[in-house]
Specification:
- It is built from 15 helices and 25 strands.
- The longest helix is centred in the N-terminal third of the chain and has 17 residues, at 37-53.
- The strands form six sheets. The chain has a nine-stranded mixed β-sheet. The protein has a four-stranded parallel β-sheet with strand order 4-3-5-6, sandwiched between helices. The chain has a four-stranded antiparallel β-sheet with strand order 16-17-19-20, with no helix packed on it.
- It has helices at 6-12, 37-53, 70-81, 95-105, 117-126, 142-147, 184-197, 215-226, 240-244, 257-264, 289-299, 379-384, 425-433, 469-477, 505-512; strands spanning 21-26, 32-36, 61-65, 85-88, 109-112, 131-134, 164-170, 178-183, 206-208, 232-235, 252-255, 279-282, 304-309, 313-317, 339-340, 345-349, 362-367, 374-375, 392-400, 406-411, 416-418, 421-423, 438-448, 452-461, 488-491.
- It is α/β, with parallel strands linked by helices.
- The structure holds malonyl-coenzyme A and adenosine monophosphate (AMP).
- Malonyl-coenzyme A (MLC) binds at residues 210-211, 214-217, 238, 256, 258, 283-284, 308-309, 418-421, 451, 454, 482-483.
Protein backbone atom coordinates (compact mmCIF):
# COMPACT_ATOMS: atom_id res chain seq x y z
CA UNK A 1 0.00 0.00 0.00
CA UNK A 2 2.90 2.39 -0.71
CA UNK A 3 0.74 4.44 -2.97
CA UNK A 4 -1.17 5.92 0.00
CA UNK A 5 2.02 7.43 1.39
CA UNK A 6 2.06 10.99 0.09
CA UNK A 7 5.82 10.81 -0.38
CA UNK A 8 5.46 7.86 -2.75
CA UNK A 9 3.05 9.84 -4.91
CA UNK A 10 5.39 12.83 -4.99
CA UNK A 11 8.39 10.60 -5.68
CA UNK A 12 6.60 8.91 -8.58
CA UNK A 13 6.32 12.32 -10.26
CA UNK A 14 10.04 13.10 -10.09
CA UNK A 15 11.57 13.32 -13.59
CA UNK A 16 13.29 10.25 -15.00
CA UNK A 17 16.66 11.99 -14.88
CA UNK A 18 17.18 12.50 -11.16
CA UNK A 19 20.36 14.48 -11.75
CA UNK A 20 18.49 17.50 -13.10
CA UNK A 21 17.82 20.47 -10.84
CA UNK A 22 14.90 20.19 -8.43
CA UNK A 23 15.61 23.31 -6.38
CA UNK A 24 17.74 26.35 -7.03
CA UNK A 25 18.11 27.86 -3.58
CA UNK A 26 19.07 31.53 -3.50
CA UNK A 27 21.54 32.04 -0.67
CA UNK A 28 21.52 35.23 1.45
CA UNK A 29 24.42 36.68 -0.59
CA UNK A 30 22.52 36.09 -3.83
CA UNK A 31 24.50 33.08 -5.10
CA UNK A 32 22.65 29.91 -6.06
CA UNK A 33 22.91 26.46 -4.59
CA UNK A 34 21.54 23.63 -6.72
CA UNK A 35 19.79 20.51 -5.43
CA UNK A 36 18.96 17.67 -7.80
CA UNK A 37 15.95 15.36 -7.53
CA UNK A 38 18.40 12.71 -6.36
CA UNK A 39 19.49 15.07 -3.57
CA UNK A 40 15.87 15.33 -2.38
CA UNK A 41 15.43 11.55 -2.53
CA UNK A 42 18.72 10.74 -0.81
CA UNK A 43 18.72 13.60 1.70
CA UNK A 44 15.21 12.73 2.86
CA UNK A 45 16.17 9.02 2.93
CA UNK A 46 19.09 9.71 5.28
CA UNK A 47 16.84 11.69 7.62
CA UNK A 48 14.15 9.00 7.42
CA UNK A 49 16.75 6.38 8.37
CA UNK A 50 17.84 8.55 11.29
CA UNK A 51 14.22 8.72 12.47
CA UNK A 52 13.87 4.96 11.99
CA UNK A 53 16.98 4.38 14.12
CA UNK A 54 15.21 6.09 17.05
CA UNK A 55 12.65 3.24 17.08
CA UNK A 56 9.76 5.64 17.67
CA UNK A 57 6.18 4.40 17.66
CA UNK A 58 4.49 4.93 14.28
CA UNK A 59 2.76 8.27 14.01
CA UNK A 60 5.15 10.05 16.39
CA UNK A 61 5.04 13.82 16.12
CA UNK A 62 8.18 15.47 14.75
CA UNK A 63 7.97 19.13 15.82
CA UNK A 64 10.03 21.50 13.72
CA UNK A 65 10.79 25.17 14.35
CA UNK A 66 13.57 26.09 11.95
CA UNK A 67 14.37 28.75 9.38
CA UNK A 68 13.37 27.96 5.83
CA UNK A 69 15.86 25.77 3.98
CA UNK A 70 15.80 22.96 1.43
CA UNK A 71 16.98 20.66 4.23
CA UNK A 72 13.90 21.65 6.25
CA UNK A 73 11.76 20.58 3.29
CA UNK A 74 13.71 17.28 3.19
CA UNK A 75 12.87 16.80 6.87
CA UNK A 76 9.19 17.15 5.98
CA UNK A 77 9.60 14.54 3.23
CA UNK A 78 11.56 12.30 5.61
CA UNK A 79 8.77 12.50 8.16
CA UNK A 80 6.22 11.47 5.54
CA UNK A 81 8.28 8.58 4.25
CA UNK A 82 9.00 7.26 7.75
CA UNK A 83 5.33 7.22 8.76
CA UNK A 84 5.55 9.97 11.35
CA UNK A 85 3.59 13.20 11.69
CA UNK A 86 5.11 16.55 10.74
CA UNK A 87 4.39 19.42 13.09
CA UNK A 88 5.70 22.69 11.64
CA UNK A 89 5.94 25.72 13.92
CA UNK A 90 6.26 29.39 12.97
CA UNK A 91 9.76 30.66 13.73
CA UNK A 92 8.21 33.73 15.34
CA UNK A 93 6.74 31.69 18.20
CA UNK A 94 8.31 32.45 21.56
CA UNK A 95 8.68 30.28 24.64
CA UNK A 96 5.13 30.49 26.04
CA UNK A 97 3.70 29.61 22.63
CA UNK A 98 6.24 26.79 22.11
CA UNK A 99 5.62 25.38 25.55
CA UNK A 100 1.95 25.00 24.71
CA UNK A 101 2.56 23.29 21.37
CA UNK A 102 5.14 20.88 22.77
CA UNK A 103 3.01 20.12 25.83
CA UNK A 104 -0.10 19.58 23.73
CA UNK A 105 1.34 17.61 20.81
CA UNK A 106 3.80 15.53 22.88
CA UNK A 107 6.30 15.20 20.04
CA UNK A 108 8.93 12.45 20.14
CA UNK A 109 11.43 14.65 18.32
CA UNK A 110 11.93 18.41 18.27
CA UNK A 111 14.13 20.09 15.67
CA UNK A 112 15.02 23.72 16.30
CA UNK A 113 17.44 26.40 15.09
CA UNK A 114 20.95 26.03 16.57
CA UNK A 115 20.64 29.44 18.24
CA UNK A 116 17.45 28.35 20.04
CA UNK A 117 18.75 25.00 21.30
CA UNK A 118 19.20 26.27 24.88
CA UNK A 119 15.64 27.28 25.57
CA UNK A 120 13.86 24.91 23.21
CA UNK A 121 15.69 21.80 24.45
CA UNK A 122 14.95 22.79 28.04
CA UNK A 123 11.26 23.09 27.22
CA UNK A 124 11.32 19.87 25.25
CA UNK A 125 13.13 17.73 27.82
CA UNK A 126 10.91 19.11 30.59
CA UNK A 127 7.95 17.92 28.55
CA UNK A 128 9.31 14.43 28.04
CA UNK A 129 10.62 14.82 24.48
CA UNK A 130 13.28 12.18 23.86
CA UNK A 131 15.30 13.76 21.06
CA UNK A 132 16.18 17.36 20.19
CA UNK A 133 18.19 18.15 17.06
CA UNK A 134 19.24 21.42 15.49
CA UNK A 135 19.06 22.56 11.88
CA UNK A 136 20.37 25.94 10.74
CA UNK A 137 19.47 27.80 7.56
CA UNK A 138 23.16 27.45 6.62
CA UNK A 139 22.94 23.63 6.73
CA UNK A 140 24.65 23.33 10.10
CA UNK A 141 23.36 21.46 13.14
CA UNK A 142 23.08 18.03 14.69
CA UNK A 143 20.24 16.81 12.45
CA UNK A 144 22.43 16.76 9.35
CA UNK A 145 25.48 15.59 11.31
CA UNK A 146 23.57 12.56 12.57
CA UNK A 147 21.74 11.91 9.31
CA UNK A 148 25.08 11.81 7.47
CA UNK A 149 25.85 8.52 9.24
CA UNK A 150 22.79 6.86 7.74
CA UNK A 151 22.20 5.22 4.39
CA UNK A 152 20.78 7.27 1.54
CA UNK A 153 18.50 4.38 0.56
CA UNK A 154 15.22 4.05 2.40
CA UNK A 155 12.09 1.99 1.90
CA UNK A 156 9.07 4.30 2.14
CA UNK A 157 6.70 3.12 4.86
CA UNK A 158 3.30 1.93 3.73
CA UNK A 159 0.55 4.27 4.87
CA UNK A 160 -3.20 4.10 4.70
CA UNK A 161 -5.00 7.07 3.27
CA UNK A 162 -6.34 8.15 6.64
CA UNK A 163 -3.02 7.84 8.49
CA UNK A 164 -1.85 11.20 9.78
CA UNK A 165 0.78 13.11 7.83
CA UNK A 166 0.83 16.47 9.61
CA UNK A 167 -0.64 18.50 12.42
CA UNK A 168 -1.03 22.25 11.87
CA UNK A 169 -1.86 24.36 14.88
CA UNK A 170 -4.54 26.92 14.29
CA UNK A 171 -5.92 29.10 17.04
CA UNK A 172 -9.48 29.05 18.15
CA UNK A 173 -11.83 31.87 18.88
CA UNK A 174 -11.65 30.88 22.51
CA UNK A 175 -9.02 29.02 24.42
CA UNK A 176 -5.74 27.79 23.06
CA UNK A 177 -4.63 26.61 19.65
CA UNK A 178 -5.99 23.43 18.18
CA UNK A 179 -3.95 20.97 16.15
CA UNK A 180 -5.64 20.26 12.83
CA UNK A 181 -4.86 16.64 11.92
CA UNK A 182 -4.27 16.13 8.21
CA UNK A 183 -3.91 12.70 6.68
CA UNK A 184 -1.88 11.49 3.73
CA UNK A 185 -5.20 11.16 1.88
CA UNK A 186 -6.29 14.73 2.70
CA UNK A 187 -3.08 16.19 1.34
CA UNK A 188 -2.71 13.93 -1.67
CA UNK A 189 -6.29 14.38 -2.86
CA UNK A 190 -5.92 18.16 -2.68
CA UNK A 191 -2.55 18.20 -4.43
CA UNK A 192 -3.86 15.94 -7.19
CA UNK A 193 -6.89 18.17 -7.80
CA UNK A 194 -4.78 21.32 -7.92
CA UNK A 195 -2.32 19.72 -10.31
CA UNK A 196 -5.08 19.41 -12.88
CA UNK A 197 -7.02 22.56 -12.00
CA UNK A 198 -3.96 24.81 -12.17
CA UNK A 199 -2.66 22.94 -15.19
CA UNK A 200 0.76 22.12 -13.72
CA UNK A 201 3.04 20.94 -16.54
CA UNK A 202 6.49 19.48 -16.83
CA UNK A 203 8.38 22.65 -17.75
CA UNK A 204 6.78 24.74 -15.03
CA UNK A 205 9.15 26.47 -12.63
CA UNK A 206 7.77 27.67 -9.30
CA UNK A 207 9.14 30.67 -7.43
CA UNK A 208 8.84 29.62 -3.79
CA UNK A 209 9.12 32.65 -1.51
CA UNK A 210 6.69 31.78 1.31
CA UNK A 211 7.45 30.37 4.73
CA UNK A 212 7.15 26.57 4.97
CA UNK A 213 5.37 26.27 8.30
CA UNK A 214 1.83 26.90 7.01
CA UNK A 215 -0.49 25.36 4.42
CA UNK A 216 0.35 27.81 1.66
CA UNK A 217 4.14 27.42 1.48
CA UNK A 218 4.36 23.86 2.83
CA UNK A 219 1.55 22.07 1.05
CA UNK A 220 0.11 24.12 -1.80
CA UNK A 221 3.47 25.28 -3.14
CA UNK A 222 5.74 22.30 -2.44
CA UNK A 223 3.23 19.60 -3.37
CA UNK A 224 2.30 21.52 -6.52
CA UNK A 225 5.88 21.61 -7.75
CA UNK A 226 6.91 18.10 -6.67
CA UNK A 227 3.77 16.39 -7.96
CA UNK A 228 4.43 17.76 -11.42
CA UNK A 229 8.18 17.24 -11.35
CA UNK A 230 8.67 21.01 -11.64
CA UNK A 231 11.79 22.67 -10.28
CA UNK A 232 11.60 25.48 -7.74
CA UNK A 233 13.52 28.72 -7.37
CA UNK A 234 13.68 28.90 -3.61
CA UNK A 235 13.92 32.11 -1.56
CA UNK A 236 14.38 31.79 2.20
CA UNK A 237 12.79 35.22 2.59
CA UNK A 238 10.58 37.24 0.29
CA UNK A 239 12.51 40.14 -1.26
CA UNK A 240 10.45 41.85 -3.99
CA UNK A 241 13.36 42.90 -6.16
CA UNK A 242 15.15 39.53 -6.07
CA UNK A 243 11.93 37.63 -6.75
CA UNK A 244 10.88 39.83 -9.66
CA UNK A 245 14.34 39.45 -11.19
CA UNK A 246 13.62 35.71 -11.55
CA UNK A 247 10.21 35.98 -13.24
CA UNK A 248 12.11 35.57 -16.50
CA UNK A 249 13.17 32.05 -15.48
CA UNK A 250 9.92 30.90 -13.90
CA UNK A 251 6.29 30.20 -14.76
CA UNK A 252 4.34 30.06 -11.46
CA UNK A 253 4.36 32.33 -8.39
CA UNK A 254 2.34 31.96 -5.19
CA UNK A 255 1.94 34.64 -2.58
CA UNK A 256 -0.25 36.23 0.03
CA UNK A 257 -1.66 39.62 -1.05
CA UNK A 258 1.04 41.55 0.85
CA UNK A 259 3.67 40.10 -1.50
CA UNK A 260 1.78 41.48 -4.52
CA UNK A 261 1.36 44.87 -2.85
CA UNK A 262 5.10 45.03 -2.18
CA UNK A 263 6.00 44.07 -5.76
CA UNK A 264 3.58 46.65 -7.15
CA UNK A 265 5.44 49.29 -5.14
CA UNK A 266 8.46 48.73 -7.40
CA UNK A 267 8.13 50.94 -10.48
CA UNK A 268 10.10 48.46 -12.60
CA UNK A 269 7.34 45.86 -12.51
CA UNK A 270 5.90 45.69 -16.02
CA UNK A 271 4.65 43.36 -18.76
CA UNK A 272 8.13 42.58 -20.05
CA UNK A 273 9.27 41.51 -16.62
CA UNK A 274 6.31 39.12 -16.21
CA UNK A 275 6.20 37.93 -19.84
CA UNK A 276 7.67 34.48 -19.13
CA UNK A 277 5.25 33.79 -16.28
CA UNK A 278 2.20 31.59 -16.77
CA UNK A 279 0.34 31.90 -13.48
CA UNK A 280 0.22 34.20 -10.45
CA UNK A 281 -1.70 32.72 -7.52
CA UNK A 282 -2.86 34.54 -4.38
CA UNK A 283 -4.49 33.33 -1.20
CA UNK A 284 -4.47 33.06 2.62
CA UNK A 285 -6.07 36.51 2.88
CA UNK A 286 -8.43 38.57 0.73
CA UNK A 287 -6.81 40.38 -2.18
CA UNK A 288 -8.17 43.89 -2.63
CA UNK A 289 -9.78 44.46 -6.01
CA UNK A 290 -7.43 47.44 -6.43
CA UNK A 291 -4.44 45.09 -6.15
CA UNK A 292 -5.98 42.63 -8.60
CA UNK A 293 -6.59 45.43 -11.12
CA UNK A 294 -3.21 47.07 -10.67
CA UNK A 295 -1.47 43.72 -11.23
CA UNK A 296 -3.46 43.19 -14.42
CA UNK A 297 -2.63 46.68 -15.69
CA UNK A 298 1.05 46.48 -14.91
CA UNK A 299 1.80 42.87 -15.89
CA UNK A 300 -1.08 41.82 -18.13
CA UNK A 301 -1.80 38.88 -15.79
CA UNK A 302 -5.03 38.30 -13.87
CA UNK A 303 -4.05 36.95 -10.47
CA UNK A 304 -5.74 33.63 -9.73
CA UNK A 305 -7.23 33.93 -6.24
CA UNK A 306 -8.04 30.79 -4.30
CA UNK A 307 -9.35 30.08 -0.82
CA UNK A 308 -8.43 27.48 1.77
CA UNK A 309 -7.54 26.87 5.38
CA UNK A 310 -5.39 24.71 7.62
CA UNK A 311 -8.21 22.28 8.35
CA UNK A 312 -9.10 21.70 4.73
CA UNK A 313 -6.22 22.69 2.43
CA UNK A 314 -7.65 24.30 -0.73
CA UNK A 315 -11.40 24.64 -1.18
CA UNK A 316 -12.15 27.00 -4.05
CA UNK A 317 -10.19 28.52 -6.88
CA UNK A 318 -10.63 30.87 -9.76
CA UNK A 319 -10.05 29.01 -12.99
CA UNK A 320 -6.66 28.65 -14.56
CA UNK A 321 -8.09 28.29 -18.06
CA UNK A 322 -11.49 27.64 -19.62
CA UNK A 323 -12.60 24.12 -18.92
CA UNK A 324 -15.94 22.68 -19.96
CA UNK A 325 -15.52 19.79 -17.50
CA UNK A 326 -15.81 22.28 -14.66
CA UNK A 327 -18.34 24.47 -16.41
CA UNK A 328 -16.19 27.57 -16.41
CA UNK A 329 -15.20 30.01 -19.09
CA UNK A 330 -11.82 30.70 -17.60
CA UNK A 331 -12.50 34.16 -16.25
CA UNK A 332 -10.58 35.00 -13.07
CA UNK A 333 -12.82 37.39 -11.22
CA UNK A 334 -11.12 39.78 -8.83
CA UNK A 335 -12.78 39.98 -5.44
CA UNK A 336 -13.95 36.36 -5.69
CA UNK A 337 -12.29 33.10 -4.73
CA UNK A 338 -13.70 31.21 -7.71
CA UNK A 339 -15.42 27.86 -7.88
CA UNK A 340 -15.50 24.88 -5.54
CA UNK A 341 -12.61 22.62 -6.53
CA UNK A 342 -13.63 19.36 -8.22
CA UNK A 343 -14.64 16.83 -5.57
CA UNK A 344 -14.93 19.50 -2.86
CA UNK A 345 -18.36 20.40 -1.54
CA UNK A 346 -18.81 24.09 -0.67
CA UNK A 347 -22.18 25.46 0.42
CA UNK A 348 -23.61 28.61 1.98
CA UNK A 349 -26.10 28.12 4.78
CA UNK A 350 -27.97 30.51 7.03
CA UNK A 351 -27.64 30.59 10.81
CA UNK A 352 -30.76 28.40 10.88
CA UNK A 353 -28.87 25.70 8.94
CA UNK A 354 -30.95 26.19 5.80
CA UNK A 355 -29.37 26.54 2.32
CA UNK A 356 -29.28 30.06 0.92
CA UNK A 357 -29.99 31.13 -2.63
CA UNK A 358 -27.35 32.54 -5.00
CA UNK A 359 -26.29 36.01 -3.89
CA UNK A 360 -27.37 35.53 -0.27
CA UNK A 361 -24.73 35.88 2.42
CA UNK A 362 -24.25 33.12 4.98
CA UNK A 363 -21.90 30.60 6.58
CA UNK A 364 -19.52 28.70 4.35
CA UNK A 365 -19.50 24.96 5.03
CA UNK A 366 -17.37 22.38 3.28
CA UNK A 367 -16.98 18.68 2.75
CA UNK A 368 -14.61 16.44 0.82
CA UNK A 369 -11.59 14.16 0.87
CA UNK A 370 -9.44 17.17 1.74
CA UNK A 371 -11.27 17.93 5.00
CA UNK A 372 -9.19 17.13 8.09
CA UNK A 373 -9.70 14.28 10.52
CA UNK A 374 -10.34 16.55 13.51
CA UNK A 375 -8.43 18.48 16.15
CA UNK A 376 -5.66 16.67 17.99
CA UNK A 377 -7.04 15.25 21.23
CA UNK A 378 -10.06 17.60 21.17
CA UNK A 379 -13.06 15.47 20.18
CA UNK A 380 -15.57 17.95 21.64
CA UNK A 381 -14.08 20.93 19.76
CA UNK A 382 -14.01 18.82 16.62
CA UNK A 383 -17.67 17.91 17.01
CA UNK A 384 -18.62 21.57 17.53
CA UNK A 385 -17.07 22.54 14.21
CA UNK A 386 -19.12 20.11 12.12
CA UNK A 387 -22.80 20.32 11.22
CA UNK A 388 -25.13 17.46 12.04
CA UNK A 389 -24.85 16.25 8.43
CA UNK A 390 -21.05 16.22 8.51
CA UNK A 391 -20.00 19.50 6.88
CA UNK A 392 -17.10 21.48 8.36
CA UNK A 393 -18.01 25.01 9.47
CA UNK A 394 -15.22 27.23 8.12
CA UNK A 395 -16.14 30.28 10.20
CA UNK A 396 -16.00 32.29 6.97
CA UNK A 397 -18.99 34.24 5.78
CA UNK A 398 -19.66 34.52 2.08
CA UNK A 399 -21.88 33.92 -0.89
CA UNK A 400 -22.03 32.18 -4.22
CA UNK A 401 -23.17 34.12 -7.26
CA UNK A 402 -25.42 32.80 -10.00
CA UNK A 403 -22.39 31.77 -12.08
CA UNK A 404 -20.96 29.68 -9.23
CA UNK A 405 -18.18 32.01 -8.08
CA UNK A 406 -17.75 32.20 -4.30
CA UNK A 407 -16.83 35.41 -2.46
CA UNK A 408 -15.70 35.73 1.15
CA UNK A 409 -17.29 38.81 2.67
CA UNK A 410 -16.41 38.40 6.34
CA UNK A 411 -15.81 35.97 9.18
CA UNK A 412 -18.03 34.78 11.96
CA UNK A 413 -14.85 33.84 13.87
CA UNK A 414 -13.08 36.69 15.64
CA UNK A 415 -9.92 36.56 13.56
CA UNK A 416 -7.50 39.10 12.11
CA UNK A 417 -5.47 38.08 9.04
CA UNK A 418 -2.35 40.19 8.91
CA UNK A 419 0.01 39.73 5.97
CA UNK A 420 -1.36 36.20 5.60
CA UNK A 421 -0.81 35.25 9.25
CA UNK A 422 -3.76 34.59 11.52
CA UNK A 423 -4.01 36.55 14.75
CA UNK A 424 -6.66 35.44 17.23
CA UNK A 425 -7.82 38.41 19.32
CA UNK A 426 -8.82 36.20 22.26
CA UNK A 427 -5.24 34.94 22.61
CA UNK A 428 -3.65 38.42 22.46
CA UNK A 429 -6.28 39.91 24.77
CA UNK A 430 -5.52 37.23 27.36
CA UNK A 431 -1.87 38.28 27.35
CA UNK A 432 -2.77 41.99 27.59
CA UNK A 433 -5.24 41.42 30.41
CA UNK A 434 -2.50 39.72 32.44
CA UNK A 435 -0.28 42.83 32.30
CA UNK A 436 -0.09 45.04 35.37
CA UNK A 437 -2.60 47.88 35.47
CA UNK A 438 -4.86 46.48 32.71
CA UNK A 439 -8.52 45.99 33.50
CA UNK A 440 -9.72 44.81 30.10
CA UNK A 441 -8.85 45.00 26.43
CA UNK A 442 -10.10 44.48 22.91
CA UNK A 443 -7.97 43.63 19.90
CA UNK A 444 -9.52 44.69 16.61
CA UNK A 445 -8.45 44.39 13.00
CA UNK A 446 -8.23 47.54 10.89
CA UNK A 447 -7.26 48.04 7.24
CA UNK A 448 -3.55 48.43 6.55
CA UNK A 449 -1.93 49.31 3.21
CA UNK A 450 0.86 46.69 3.46
CA UNK A 451 -0.47 43.84 5.62
CA UNK A 452 -4.10 44.18 4.45
CA UNK A 453 -5.27 44.15 8.03
CA UNK A 454 -3.43 44.66 11.33
CA UNK A 455 -4.39 44.37 14.97
CA UNK A 456 -4.67 47.38 17.24
CA UNK A 457 -5.31 47.13 20.96
CA UNK A 458 -7.81 49.24 22.87
CA UNK A 459 -7.32 48.90 26.61
CA UNK A 460 -8.99 50.05 29.77
CA UNK A 461 -6.70 50.57 32.80
CA UNK A 462 -7.59 49.45 36.30
CA UNK A 463 -8.98 52.15 38.54
CA UNK A 464 -6.17 54.49 39.57
CA UNK A 465 -3.53 52.71 37.42
CA UNK A 466 -1.30 54.60 35.00
CA UNK A 467 -0.92 52.56 31.81
CA UNK A 468 1.31 53.48 28.91
CA UNK A 469 0.37 52.05 25.48
CA UNK A 470 3.97 51.75 24.30
CA UNK A 471 4.96 49.83 27.42
CA UNK A 472 2.09 47.42 26.78
CA UNK A 473 3.37 46.84 23.26
CA UNK A 474 6.94 46.32 24.51
CA UNK A 475 5.72 43.80 27.07
CA UNK A 476 3.77 41.90 24.39
CA UNK A 477 6.78 41.89 22.09
CA UNK A 478 8.73 40.00 24.73
CA UNK A 479 6.10 37.26 24.97
CA UNK A 480 4.32 36.85 21.65
CA UNK A 481 5.22 36.09 18.04
CA UNK A 482 5.96 39.46 16.42
CA UNK A 483 3.08 39.32 13.91
CA UNK A 484 0.58 39.00 16.80
CA UNK A 485 1.83 42.17 18.51
CA UNK A 486 -0.68 44.99 17.89
CA UNK A 487 0.68 47.78 15.73
CA UNK A 488 -0.81 50.40 18.06
CA UNK A 489 -2.30 50.53 21.53
CA UNK A 490 -4.91 53.03 22.71
CA UNK A 491 -5.79 53.59 26.35
CA UNK A 492 -9.47 54.48 26.86
CA UNK A 493 -11.86 54.88 29.80
CA UNK A 494 -14.27 52.12 28.77
CA UNK A 495 -15.16 49.76 25.94
CA UNK A 496 -18.51 50.04 24.14
CA UNK A 497 -20.87 47.22 25.14
CA UNK A 498 -24.26 46.07 23.98
CA UNK A 499 -27.22 45.34 26.24
CA UNK A 500 -25.88 41.83 26.86
CA UNK A 501 -22.60 43.30 28.12
CA UNK A 502 -20.65 42.05 25.06
CA UNK A 503 -17.91 44.34 23.73
CA UNK A 504 -19.06 45.89 20.46
CA UNK A 505 -15.96 45.40 18.36
CA UNK A 506 -17.77 46.64 15.26
CA UNK A 507 -18.04 50.10 16.86
CA UNK A 508 -14.34 50.07 17.71
CA UNK A 509 -13.50 48.97 14.17
CA UNK A 510 -15.58 51.86 12.79
CA UNK A 511 -13.83 54.29 15.10
CA UNK A 512 -10.28 53.20 14.20
CA UNK A 513 -10.74 52.05 10.61
CA UNK A 514 -8.80 54.95 9.10
CA UNK A 515 -5.90 54.68 11.53
CA UNK A 516 -3.45 53.65 8.80
CA UNK A 517 -4.99 55.30 5.76
C1 LIG B 1 6.03 40.61 9.94
N1 LIG B 1 5.48 41.47 10.82
C2 LIG B 1 4.16 41.40 10.72
C3 LIG B 1 3.91 40.42 9.75
N2 LIG B 1 5.08 39.95 9.27
N3 LIG B 1 3.18 42.07 11.35
C4 LIG B 1 1.93 41.76 11.03
N4 LIG B 1 1.61 40.83 10.11
C5 LIG B 1 2.58 40.14 9.46
N5 LIG B 1 2.27 39.21 8.56
C6 LIG B 1 6.14 42.41 11.75
C7 LIG B 1 7.62 42.22 11.84
O1 LIG B 1 7.88 41.38 12.90
C8 LIG B 1 8.12 43.63 12.07
O2 LIG B 1 7.89 43.99 13.39
C9 LIG B 1 7.19 44.45 11.25
O3 LIG B 1 5.96 43.70 11.19
C10 LIG B 1 7.66 44.69 9.84
O4 LIG B 1 8.10 43.49 9.33
P1 LIG B 1 8.59 43.31 7.83
O5 LIG B 1 10.09 43.34 7.77
O6 LIG B 1 7.85 44.21 6.94
O7 LIG B 1 8.10 41.82 7.62
P2 LIG B 1 8.68 40.73 6.72
O8 LIG B 1 9.70 39.95 7.44
O9 LIG B 1 9.04 41.33 5.38
O10 LIG B 1 7.41 39.75 6.55
C11 LIG B 1 6.26 40.18 5.89
C12 LIG B 1 5.72 39.01 5.05
C13 LIG B 1 5.49 37.83 6.03
C14 LIG B 1 4.44 39.46 4.40
C15 LIG B 1 6.74 38.59 3.98
O11 LIG B 1 4.57 38.22 7.03
C16 LIG B 1 5.03 36.60 5.34
O12 LIG B 1 5.83 35.81 4.82
N6 LIG B 1 3.71 36.36 5.27
C17 LIG B 1 3.17 35.17 4.66
C18 LIG B 1 2.40 34.37 5.65
C19 LIG B 1 1.93 33.04 5.06
O13 LIG B 1 2.65 32.29 4.43
N7 LIG B 1 0.66 32.70 5.30
C20 LIG B 1 0.07 31.48 4.83
C21 LIG B 1 -0.83 30.91 5.90
S1 LIG B 1 -1.65 29.47 5.25
P3 LIG B 1 8.98 44.78 14.23
O14 LIG B 1 8.24 45.14 15.45
O15 LIG B 1 10.06 43.80 14.43
O16 LIG B 1 9.35 45.96 13.38
C22 LIG B 1 -3.30 29.92 5.17
C23 LIG B 1 -4.21 29.01 4.45
C24 LIG B 1 -4.31 29.43 3.03
O17 LIG B 1 -3.67 30.94 5.59
O18 LIG B 1 -5.42 29.60 2.51
O19 LIG B 1 -3.25 29.60 2.43
P1 LIG C 1 -5.51 29.38 8.35
O1 LIG C 1 -6.26 29.01 9.57
O2 LIG C 1 -4.20 30.02 8.61
O3 LIG C 1 -5.41 28.26 7.45
O4 LIG C 1 -6.37 30.50 7.65
C1 LIG C 1 -7.53 30.19 6.96
C2 LIG C 1 -8.38 31.39 6.76
O5 LIG C 1 -7.75 32.30 5.86
C3 LIG C 1 -9.69 31.09 6.10
O6 LIG C 1 -10.64 30.57 7.00
C4 LIG C 1 -10.08 32.43 5.55
O7 LIG C 1 -10.65 33.23 6.56
C5 LIG C 1 -8.74 33.02 5.15
N1 LIG C 1 -8.48 32.95 3.70
C6 LIG C 1 -7.72 32.08 3.03
N2 LIG C 1 -7.72 32.39 1.71
C7 LIG C 1 -8.51 33.47 1.56
C8 LIG C 1 -8.91 34.27 0.45
N3 LIG C 1 -8.47 34.05 -0.77
N4 LIG C 1 -9.75 35.31 0.69
C9 LIG C 1 -10.20 35.57 1.93
N5 LIG C 1 -9.85 34.87 3.01
C10 LIG C 1 -9.00 33.83 2.83
Amino acid sequence: MHQANLYSALRAAFPADLQTTAVEAIEPGGQSLYYSWADLEHGSARMANLLASLKLPEGSRIAVQVEKSVEAMMLYLATLRSGHVFLPLNTAYQSAEMEYFIGNAEPAVVVCAPGCFGWVSKLAFNNGVGHVYTLGADRTGTLLDRAAHHSDAHQVLARKSDDLAAILYTSGTTGRSKGAMLSHGNLLSNAAVLKVYWDWQAGDVLIHALPIFHVHGLFVAIHGALLSGSPMIWFAKFEPEAVMARFKDATVFMGVPTLYVRMLADARLDRDMAAHMRLFISGSAPMLIETFRAWKTRTGHSVLERYGMSETAMLTSNPCKPDARYGNEGERRGGTVGFALPGVGVRVHGDDGQPLAAGEIGNIEVQGPNVFAGYWRMPEKTAEEFTADGWFKTGDVGMQDARGYFSIVGRSKDLIISGGYNVYPAEVEAFINDLAGVDESALIGVPHPDFGEVGIAVIVPRKGAQVDGQKILDALKAQLANFKVPKRCYVVKSLPRNAMGKVQKNLLRDQYQNDFS
